[in-house]
Fold these 4 entries.
Entry 1:
Amino acid sequence: MTEPVLDITDVTVHLGGREVLSDVDFRLRSGELVGLIGPNGAGKTTLLRTALGLVPVHRGTVLVGGRTPRQAQGTLGYVPQRHEFAWDFPITVEGAVATGRTHLTGLLRRRTAQDREAVADALDRVGMAELRTRPVGELSGGQRQRVLVARALALRPQVLLLDEPFTGIDAPTQELLSTLLTGLRDEGVAVLMTTHDLAAATALCSRLCLLNRTVVADDEPAALADTDIWLRTFGLDRAEQLLKALGVTG
Amino acid sequence: MTAAFEFLTAPWEYDFWRRALLVALMSGLVCGVIGSHVVLRGMAFIGDAVSHAVFPGIAVAFVLGSNLVLGGAVAGVVTALLIAVFTQNRRLKEDSVIGIFFAASFGLGIVILSTAPGYGGSLESFLFGSILGISDSDVVSVAVIGAGVLLCTALFNSRFVAATLDREQARAVGLPVFWLDVVLHVMVTLAIVISLQAVGNILVLALLVTPAAAARLLTDRLGAMMLLAPSIGAGGSVLGLYLSYAFDLAAGGLIVLTLTAIFLLCWLFAPRHGLLTRPRRTAVPAVLAEEKS
């Protein structure tokens, strides 16, 4: 098996004096598309932010391509939740996507042909090339999500982390993003996304990681048919409906 | 025709008017550029804080008889840094921290100034500006500091944009968000310090915020906004000064009122976004309605 591009070993994270992640073990390899599943407050976003070097690790090790997250900063593609972005800012779609490469450009340097090409490619991949001169404030929710994905892709990353990319978007956009993510996976990009859309995750992902402060289960969707795992992850008493939706009842 | 020409040229006969016009022009320009970032980031209150924070520095410089611009800059930068540091504590909201420091520094300024004999007159000129009492060396300080601010803004512009658009992503790719905040705060401070003599401590916020807000109404492009805001700022300041000359009324107040009038015109008549020019029945754009639901 190939070396993992993201290697999280026995990681414990404290935020505001509270233990948010406990002894988390997680690995992500090139060509994998993994869904990070869990209830609100399970630490999904924190796990992504840990990989990005935005959260101090209390115990354990995080390696991104063999380097610390701090050293690897600027190489990972990151798609935060949509509300993190100032959509009222006077900037075009193209300009917003180009900010994904700002940190690569020196203070005295202008954008290079390589930068422009990467931005154009990213816009093409999310199907936003035609809207590239539109102000971001005039976009729909689905278009906004595509802009954020394009901004991450403008880096041409080997690891792509997405925080709830499917929340609040319509079926066509969801389909477009699904096709895009599987395409990236096939090109060898390592993709990790958090989601509350269990049905989509089951259909799309090669592996699901069930998280609730710690990893409850981590396997192919088909291997997660044990009702108990889902009950433990979500703290439910009855899980019939949930499991029926997932098609794991047997 | 000749009357209009005379109206335009007459003030230039006087040295103090030439200096006043130059300073008004440069202040409007620099404040318009940096004000665009202030408006887009929603940090108008920081501008307010810094303009008050500059006060004790000026008071100290006045009492010691040293350069007022330098004193103000030091005090403003120290306060801007304090605000940047204290707001890293998530339990305190930025506006509370700002409220604490700007009131404190203003209080300190008044106490320091009250130690100087006959402080009433100088207090007034700090608070309301003294654009007709500007010296040649002041003009040079304004030009040099203003050029520095413009150069620095040009260098850091795309980074400021990235940090304002999405702090989370900016941090994630390793942009030094905290230090970018510090640089932006320092730029705001310097823009305020060089504009203090034109419109005074209390009104300087208008020079920073009003032209940029008016420009925002006119365009959805940052590039255009950063050209329009300084144009409005410089044009409005010079026009205000002319009005003050023509009617013999307070210069600082007229500059601010001229800028406000421009803002109101933009609010009413801006293409697409103006109250009287936007298409009917689109009070809430469909996109926003969808996003809010």
Note: The interface with chain B takes residues 16, 49, 52-54, 70, 73-74, 76, 78, 80, 84-87, 89-92, 95-96, 99-100, 102-103, 105, 107-108, 135, 137-141, 144, 151, 155 of chain A (CB under 8 Å).
Entry 2:
Amino acid sequence: MEIRRDVFQAIADPTRRAILSLIALQAMTPNALAEHFDTSRQAVSKHIKILTECQLVKQEQSGREIYYHFNPKKMKEVADWLAPFTKMWEDRFSRLDNVLNNLKKKK
Amino acid sequence: MTTPNHTTIVAEKGKQEFFITREFDAPREMVFKAFSEPDLLMQWLGPDNMEMEIEKFDNRSGGSYRFIHTDCNGSGMKFAFNGAIHEVAAPERVIRTFEFEGLPERGHVSLEFLTMEVLPGNRTLLKIQSVFKSVEDRDGLINSGMEGGLNAGFRKLDALFLKGI
């Protein structure tokens, strides 16, 4: 039976989110990607297979090498492009608000 | 109208830069201090699910820095960042470079301009401008912010599921 692959299932796993974070910055070869993880090459390939099946990752041949590309179009099904980046900064700044409040109390 | 402490991010399509602005309810010297002292910086800069280590932070004109974030959620992945500090003009301006070391090749460096302006009522306006080598580099960095946002998305989904949708 064919198992349904969707974006939410793909990003539920921390290693797959880490893979996406890396290739979102720049396309990578399987070797370059595997170097970032303690797990085996096979384990990383399995994650890539799942990400490819739900179209979050595209594979492109360039000379002898295969490069994994991030597919941001698919990501828009999950979140608006800038929204997560904004959220990251909002979280960071609300922690900074707390740091500043603590500094004010010490005075 | 936006709320006073609203974070604004502008990243126009096809441009090599983005702008971040945010107001803080604290005097400028204090905001500058929170950006300059390692023990304070560690309390807010790293993402919630990451452990932050400051390997080096020589915060002066001609200085440099290197920060390492380690994922605590199973993958154990390390993200390291480094840069050279061009100018520290306390308490109003810092100009420095930024490079993510996780990329397969070196050289994808951006230039950051941080300015802090005094506002009435002991408030401070922070402005960050980041300029990248290419549009692709800028878009790549913005895409890398998705993880935190996605986790927040999951929490919202969880809340929906609890309500039985």
Note: Chain A touches chain B through 46 residues (CB under 8 Å).
Entry 3:
Amino acid sequence: MQKEEKLLETSLPDIIAKVAEIKNAIASFLFKLENEYATLNWPSMLDNFALISSNMNSLSKVLKGERIPPLRNFTLFPVLLSPERDQELEKLTEGRLFMCNHEVVPDYLRTKPETDVEEKINQLNTKAGTIPSDNAQKQLNNLNKITSNILDIINSYKEEWDNESKQKTQQPQTSSQAETNTLIAAISMGKGLRLQSQISQQQMQQQMPNMQPGQKPMSVGKVPSTVKTTIRAGSHPYQRS
Amino acid sequence: MENTFSVGLKHNIAPHQEFLLQGSILDSHKEVLLHRLRGLCDNAEKAPEPFYDHEMVFMLRGATAQQNPVLFRVRRSVEPRDDTSWHIRYLGTSEVGDKSRHTLVRACFDVACSNNVVQFLNEMGFKLDHEYCVKGYFFHKGRMKVTVSKIFRMAPSGGSDINTQEAMSHSHLVELSVVAPAGQEQIADDMKNFAEQLKPLIQLEKVDQKRLSVQ
Amino acid sequence: MGVVSVYMFPVPEGKSGQQVVESLQKSIELLGATKTGNFCVDCETFQTSIQNTQQRQVNILHSSDHPASCFAILDAGTCLVADSLFDGLMQKLKHYYQQRKGSKIESKGQRYEFGDFVFKVGSVSLASSFKGILLEIEYCPCIIAGDCWGLLKEMASSIVGNVAEQQPNVIKNKLEHVYTTADTMCQYLEHFNNYKKQTIPPTAVSTGR
């Protein structure tokens, strides 16, 4: 127990610092809401919310951390209630709480839900108890069914959208660089056109040393089909990912 | 007498520089492209203007090293058959230039001529190097000219009947060009903007022909 | 555009070219013709620059009546009519065909109109030295030489005399065909070549080339 108390003592400043951060974030947000409501825009609102929520997150992380003993194991009770103004308390709470009296203690030190809420919960519990188990099972199944249906619909839409965007990226396949090159080489240098003219092969070789003599013009025409398949093969990995 | 050509050159008003972007479109998507071009170009209310030309490339070769082969491209309309459509086209080597220039630039002379040009060039010492037919559509937007055309090998019989000719590939060649007086570089920017509007259907680029010959 | 015949007008001994041109112009004006400006036909010769191959010549002619055209005539007589931009193409062939130095010859002078006829009185100069006089007579309403040769000859003989009897080769060969400006240019070329042949030795001396 001693050890735990010590741990708590060492980690308290941490918790206090985190809480102070949250308090500051909320305070500055409130300040903004009160003073800059005319110029405040939606994105900066969201920024403020995000700041607060990240602070809350880090606080809960600290609380769940190993260095802090589970707080629910500790009890806190008021030792002294006084209707007198307490200077020390006022200072600690930055002027929000002037005294520790009967009025404020139930609000500040409450660990259970409020009484009317508790009542409502009890009502619901008894109502749940009265429903026959068959009926309950039925309703449960229904709910599950509806949920899975909605899930299916959402998934199918998602697939559809994915396909659409994929098709959009595949659109450039309306042209082929290899075909462009073939055509330009043909009209600018007569590549693939000269074979059928009267010029002998020998002469042709002189003019186009880069062209293999045995090369048939047909092979030029076939180039694009191989290109197409390689592109298709190359795009598969992306579809799976 | 100072002829019109030299006057034109001196005052830099004779158009003799061609700005060029090239690309191609698969036959199956040709209609989409034509439709888009029709919307982008002038005279959208008219159907695309068809053309069907026969081009013969003549070459003059010399024995000495400084005599680089000279190519004259003789073209005429096959359909409609028109005897006044004969012309010679001379193209210089294309300059690819750096990244700041968006198009190929090459010298370009288009000279209309009489229909005896084939006989004339043969007597001058030119030899027919190769020939082909080109059939397609023609658009223009301001000074810019766009052609979407298919290249055909000549039938072995030499006839210009399209049914017996063999298509060069499964794509249509797309060319965007402007022939302008020298030094009007800003036209290249207009062309690039126009080419951007045709993406991703086709990529009109400056294709280095020297690089192609190495492949 | 009609049928044209070009005649060489002799310059008698002891008379200057200028005097003969003036008297010729006077006689045309006496017919009742009116001056309609100047004209010029010029010709440059390009020849193959390699020695051991077959010598070929290309003659490039321009006519002020057809300012956007260029007439390229080969030795064999093939005449290509092209845009004047063809001059630019010849520059691209400079490693094959080179302009022969001092070969520029032109016929330049007054143009007259007289009813259906057009007369052009040109003084011919080779490398800016006077060589002779060419008279061009055109009969505009007809394009078949065979159909109007008689008329043309009669008009010509009243000015140039007996020379008019001689039919230019170009016309002789295509009496029944449509006459074109290319044929006129061939006639000019023939005359220009004759002048060059006649006068090569004196030119070489007088111009110091």
Note: The longest helix of chain C spans residues 181-206.
Entry 4:
Amino acid sequence: MIAAGVLVVSMAASFVLVRKIEAVYPSAPMEDVLFISSPEFVKRASLGYSGLLADIYWMRVVQYFGRKHQRESKEYKALAPLLDIATTLDPNLVVAYEWGSTFLDQPPPSGAGDDEAAVALIGKGIRNNPNEWRLYFTLAFVQYLGQHDYLGAAKTFEEGSKVPGAHPWMKIMAAKMLTDAGNLETARYMWQNIYDESTDKNLKQNAELHLASLVVDQAVPQLESLISEFKARTGDNPTSWRDLIASGLLRSIPRDPTGTPYVFQSDGHVVVADWRKLPFITRGKPQ
Amino acid sequence: MTTRIRAIAFNTFREAVRDRVLYNLVFFALLLVATAPLLGEISIGVQRVLLINLSLSAISIFGIVISIFVGISLVSKEIERRTLYPVLSRPVGRGEFILGKYCGLAGTLLVNTMAMTTGVYVALLLMTRSFTRADANILIAIYFLFLQFIVIIGLALLFSSFSSPLLSALFALSMFVAGSFAADLRGFAAMSHGPEGLLARAASYVVPNLASLNVITRVSHDQFIPAALVGYNTLYTLLYATATITAAVLIFSRRDLK
């Protein structure tokens, strides 16, 4: 009985002590640690079960990204190496190239903000799966939105449109890249097509968020120009939306796509109430 | 002769089927299959791929474990329990005994694999609600896995014909690992010259060519498996198993059992 008591007390005390030691001498965070960094070694060590291991690594990528994204992390150190391992283990894991490049490309805190790594990953995907037109689309997408390389994007859309089974709007996008690449309408056209064509609920949700963000990107400058017009007409700054409604410039209080009214700032700028609900907006983000 | 082999095979099958460990392994494999849809939920876009990869890998790993650990005990258990002597005192040759044991375990694994295959298809149906033509490809991958088991049982029996169960398990497991690297060994041989090159080349052909018997990843992406590969793999397995069983019979025939 005494021995059992001593055992329980000493173990419990040692647990408490470990926490104290951690506080004094913290160990390196494990999240960004890759015990085996060579994709080729992992593939050889898989003893033929590389497909299963690739799925496990892909699961790890999703969990890693999800955790970092939730914490609005600015650094995604292990993301590119993890994706490299997953796609070396299973070079046909198309979903890892598609989503992985999006995770890499999106600017922090939505993603790693590493365009080059995204392009390298998707390039590897195309080399391994030359008949997957969606990969050409993803590459062109990164070139267009991430790198603003409109010529490169046009070329990639054109190449992808030649792949058997490619969607007809790949050809249209190639032409749009050469004529109206910087236009919001072009971006809207692309996201609308992604939304319409996708069967994956996550992809659909992502496209929906982008479409909503484009609505904000278009609405904010329009609202700001109405504020300028009010000032030009009356010589005073408006104090609220009601001033603009009273002057006939607006019919009602403007709302963002989430249904929340836009916030009227005293300096004449317009912002959304909660930008986290519209993570891809480029205008109307509070400073 | 065939009647005697059949009788030994049937007894081996019956004995293996009575083994609770076997049921535990099959149950565990089926449990893994059942968890695949849940694992797919915490990932993105790989539900079906993951189900196929996890299920077939479970069939493969558990099948190999059964092949090795039941295979090595087939002969040693009979010697240890002294049940081998009454069998051999009858008009049963040692070759027939080995062949009967081999067929019995192969039959057991066939039944196990069929049971696990049913589990895979049930899980697939629950996930996708309907079957497609590509789902038939899974059967080819499972057939190849069964060929792997056939090869491994032969090796386990060969090692157990002259060695202790522990060492036999170690040898058979090593051959499985080396067999997964057979293509790399051939690549290494092609780069080497002189005696090392010859040795590497010989080793690459002695170890079983298991890489071509694992098409799980290809099947998970609905990739086409050429009919020629099915034919060559079947023929290769038959030849390799014949060689290992012949070697096992030759060694066991000369073994002093007193």
Note: Chain B has a mean pLDDT of 87.
